UniProtKB/TrEMBL annotation:
Name the UniProt record assigns to this protein: Molybdopterin molybdenumtransferase
Source organism superkingdom: Bacteria
Leader sequence segment: none
Described function: Catalyzes the insertion of molybdate into adenylated molybdopterin with the concomitant release of AMP.
């Protein structure tokens, strides 16, 4: 007898099978979308020095105290301080230095007057506005103080986070390494274009579905294919196992004859089970020569739903993400749905929410059949009908997982 496990138990099994990816140091350019494996300490303050926020004139506020549009104060211009100047001259009282945005403040100056409030002079300048001490100065450490935690372990590295890492002087970060995944499509009926189909053959599609889903999570995916022959299957995968962190197969796991994956891996550390869900019922997982293997059923919709239910959360957990679930909302069904007793059904749906509505509405896209891939392309969510629900009426509230 095949054992039946719940969706939640099976998900926990896959999460624990994949575990946590090792920490590695990678150049910043390779870290986008990855997760920090340790805190990042700031090696410098940001800004690293007091600097001007405007193009203008560095002054002592007291020197331009009475300045106005009608009665400007005229000061001699000492030096030019463009951004990047490193030998910063002091500002003697009663004078000004021309200064640019990002340039270090000269010692003695306490404010900056924007060039627009002056006549822009280079020898002498007429200043038409009084300055408040501190005006247009960006102070050292205002954003980040040297030695503080700039980014915490577990942070997902997006553009702002990577920019900050660069700004505090780092060229590498310690992150959870993306998984290297081998995707294996099995089936003697599978054909790859441009070969023409004979009656009884179909074009192979699961490998691109899985590989792109895996790559979208920031991991690497390679694809392989095997006919329904145990020897061929083992030969095409086993010698390469050491190159991968995970092998994901599709097809060959249900109840008939010619179940290549089941026949090849039973007794080698992979356990085949039925999960109480639809689609995606027949599943298997385990370790083949120590490498995690997840065997998905072959139907294209079963593949994607299984990916959503098990592999996506497990891969995200392995990569160190804190949030691994799709955003779940409640929605009102636009039509009646039926679901098999004792199984959690995941239906492809389209969710929308009108302005001002608190609860959105959701309608199915296609029927429950796990071969209806075209309907999946019209969907933006999965509708979840729990194990104890056999019928959900039009107007009923259901759970929806948004893509
Ligand atoms: N007697 C039973 N028959 C079936 C059961 C069952 O419990 N008892 N379960 C059904 C369910 S549910 C599913 S799902 C499938 C799973 O079967 P397999 O994992 O063995 O998958 P295959 O038979 O190899 O393929 C199923 C289906 O998908 C097509 N396929 C497979 N691979 C690809 C691919 N790479 N690209 C595109 N299409 C693919 C294949 O041609 C089949 O049509 O078993 C049911 N049967
Ligand atoms: O469980 Mo199968 O995966 O419905 O099509």
């Amino acid at each position: 007898m095949v054992t039946v496990v719940s969706v939640d138990e099976y998900r926990a099994e896959i999460v624990s099978l994949l575990g946590t990816a090792p920490a590695v140091s990678l150049p910043l350019a390779d870290c986008a979308g990855l997760v920090l494996a340790e805190d990042v300490l700031a090696g410098v303050s940001l800004p690293p020095f007091d600097n001007s926020a405007m193009d203008g004139y560095a002054v002592r506020a007291a020197d331009v105290a009475g300045a106005s549009q009608d009665s400007p104060v005229e000061l001699p211009v000492g030096e030019d301080i463009p951004a990047g100047r490193v030998d910063v001259p002091e500002l003697p009282p009663g004078t000004t230095h021309r200064i640019m945005t990002g340039a270090p403040m000269p010692p003695g100056a306490d404010s900056v007057v924007m060039v627009e409030r002056t006549d822009g002079g280079t020898e002498r300048v007429r200043i038409h506005e009084a300055a408040v001490p501190g005006a247009h100065i960006r102070h050292v450490g205002e954003d980040v103080t040297k030695g503080s935690v700039a980014l915490t372990k577990g942070t997902v590295l997006g553009p702002a986070q990577l920019g900050l890492a660069a700004a505090v002087g780092l060229d590498k970060l310690t992150v959870r390494r993306p998984l290297r995944v081998l995707v294996v499509s099995t089936g003697s009926e599978l054909v790859v274009p441009p070969r023409e189909l004979k009656h009884g053959q179909i074009y192979e599609s699961n490998s691109i579905t899985l590989a792109s889903a895996i790559r979208a999570l920031g991991c690497e995916a390679e694809v392989a294919m095997s006919i329904d022959d145990v020897g061929m299957f083992r030969w095409s995968v086993e010698p390469r196992l050491g190159e991968f962190d995970l092998v994901v197969t599709s097809g060959g796991v249900s109840a008939g004859a010619y179940e290549v994956v089941k026949d090849a891996l039973t007794g080698l550390g992979v356990k085949f089970q039925k999960v109480a869900m639809q689609p995606g019922g027949p599943q298997g997982n385990g370790r083949w020569n120590g490498i995690p293997v997840v065997t998905l059923p072959g139907n294209p919709v079963s593949v994607l739903v299984s990916f959503e239910a098990f592999l996506r959360p497990a891969i995200l957990t392995a990569l160190g993400h804190g949030t691994v679930d799709r955003h779940r909302v409640r929605a009102t069904l636009t039509e009646r749905l039926r679901s098999p007793a004792g199984r959690r059904q995941f239906r492809r749906g389209y969710y929308s929410q009108r302005d001002g509505q608190v609860t959105g509405e959701v309608g199915p896209r296609g029927g429950p059949g796990s071969h209806l891939l075209a309907a999946f392309t019209q969907a933006n969510c999965l509708i979840v009908l729990p194990e104890d629900v056999t019928e959900a009426a039009q107007g009923a509230e259901v759970d929806v997982l948004l893509f």
